[in-house]
């Protein structure tokens, strides 16, 4: 079975699914121009995981106590707060919702097609690996001091050495992981 | 209006800019597990097309504005061991999860429950990292720490030369990818 057979690009949602076919080049230009605006207007590059680590501090507060979080040498640099970074995360989530509603593609997805084609329809299996992947991705993003947005796009476009090292290494290990997971049975 | 905007106005703008980012990611089909995993399987090049275009277009604009003194750079330190190890983990995690952190948020908005579950994992990862940060700071961050360096200063060339090369590589790649796709269709 090939993945092509189970997934043809656009979501099979009823009605206006075709409206989700903006070309990737237009999206890339859009994100590039958004970078200009964000640099100019709020003196800030696009980024996600620094703010996400603040949210993890907020989640840890009831578990570890507010004092332990405030004293932690990592969270102390970026205390949990509803500031620019964390509100940007809220905006990103609603941006996805807005696009999905306008395009008519909103749907509850438990198991995506490519996953189901290889590992079956069990939601619990997908959830377990997604949770594990989330942990690994976040630890990696913090160790690298940024994710695809902060290091990859914002670092890449500023010609930062850290950004280009990040892009090269993460594409290499991501490719190896994907081939190990999806190409063994074919 | 004086730039940069700060205070409450900046908080409102955070929602607007975040919304635009999430909207673009979703509309570009990268808030979709299938698109991301198929990029790493070389079956779909949407992620590569978006990122390379964003880097070249964004970079040319930001460097022009920097030359006029309108914007400042925000360069992350090139702590080479930490960046390499972190990126290596990130690549593995991104394929297991099927999203990167930004596309995950947009995907949650689009209705992906497994993106939401994985976001719980990301919060756990954030807590774990904070708990071991003192050790990381002492042992890993200093190894290969090259500071906040940019490629053009490192190579001793003009940034425009690098963007010219990047743009040429991007166009050549895009033409090849589109030709291959047309042949398959």
Automatic annotation (TrEMBL), chain A:
PANTHER family: INNER MEMBRANE PROTEIN YEDE, SULPHUR TRANSPORT DOMAIN-CONTAINING PROTEIN. It holds the Pfam family Sulf_transp. This is Uncharacterized protein. GO terms for cellular component: plasma membrane. It is a multi-pass membrane protein. The keyword 4Fe-4S does not apply. The keyword Cell membrane applies. The chain crosses the membrane at residues 22-42, 84-106, 127-144, 164-182. Keywords: Cell inner membrane, Cell membrane, Membrane, Transmembrane, Transmembrane helix, Transport. It is found in: Cell inner membrane. It comes from the Bacteria. Belongs to the TsuA/YedE (TC 9.B.102) family.
UniProtKB/TrEMBL annotation, chain B:
The keyword Transmembrane helix applies. Pfam families: Sulf_transp. Keywords: Membrane, Transmembrane, Transmembrane helix. It comes from the Bacteria. The chain crosses the membrane at residues 6-25, 46-68, 80-100, 112-133, 153-177. This is Uncharacterized protein.
């Amino acid at each position: 079975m090939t993945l092509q057979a189970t997934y043809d690009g656009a979501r099979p949602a009823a009605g206006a699914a075709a409206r989700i076919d903006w070309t990737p080049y237009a999206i890339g230009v859009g994100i590039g121009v958004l970078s200009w605006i964000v640099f100019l207007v709020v003196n800030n590059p696009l980024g996600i995981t620094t703010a996400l680590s603040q949210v993890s501090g907020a989640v840890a507060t009831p578990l570890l106590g507010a004092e332990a979080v405030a004293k932690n040498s990592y969270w102390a640099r970026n205390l949990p707060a509803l500031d620019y970074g964390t509100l940007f995360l809220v905006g990103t989530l609603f941006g996805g919702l807005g696009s999905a509603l306008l395009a008519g593609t909103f749907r509850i997805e438990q198991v995506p097609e490519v996953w189901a084609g290889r590992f079956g329809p069990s939601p619990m299996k997908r959830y377990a690996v997604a949770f594990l992947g989330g942990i690994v991705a976040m630890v990696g993003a913090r160790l690298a001091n940024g994710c695809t947005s902060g290091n990859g796009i914002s670092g890449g476009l500023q010609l930062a050495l850290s950004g280009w090292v990040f892009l090269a290494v993460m594409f290499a290990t991501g490719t190896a992981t994907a081939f190990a997971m999806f190409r063994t049975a074919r | 209006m004086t730039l940069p905007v700060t205070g409450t106005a900046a908080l409102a703008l955070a929602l607007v800019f975040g919304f635009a980012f999430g909207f673009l990611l979703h509309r570009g089909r990268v808030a979709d597990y299938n698109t991301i995993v198929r990029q790493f399987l070389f079956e779909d090049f949407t992620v590569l097309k978006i990122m390379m275009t964003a880097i070249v277009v964004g970079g040319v604009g930001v460097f022009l504005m920097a030359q006029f003194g309108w914007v400042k750079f925000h360069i992350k330190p090139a702590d080479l061991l930490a960046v390499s190890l972190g990126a290596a983990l990130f690549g593995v995690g991104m394929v297991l999860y099927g999203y990167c952190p930004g596309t995950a948020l947009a995907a949650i908005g689009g209705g992906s429950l497994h993106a939401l579950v994985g976001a719980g994992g990301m919060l756990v990862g954030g807590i774990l990292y904070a708990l071991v940060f003192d050790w990381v700071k002492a042992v890993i961050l200093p190894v290969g720490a090259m500071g906040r360096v940019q490629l053009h200063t490192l190579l001793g060339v003009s940034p425009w030369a690098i963007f010219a090369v990047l743009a040429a590589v991007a166009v050549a790649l895009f033409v090849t990818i589109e030709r291959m796709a047309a042949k398959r269709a």
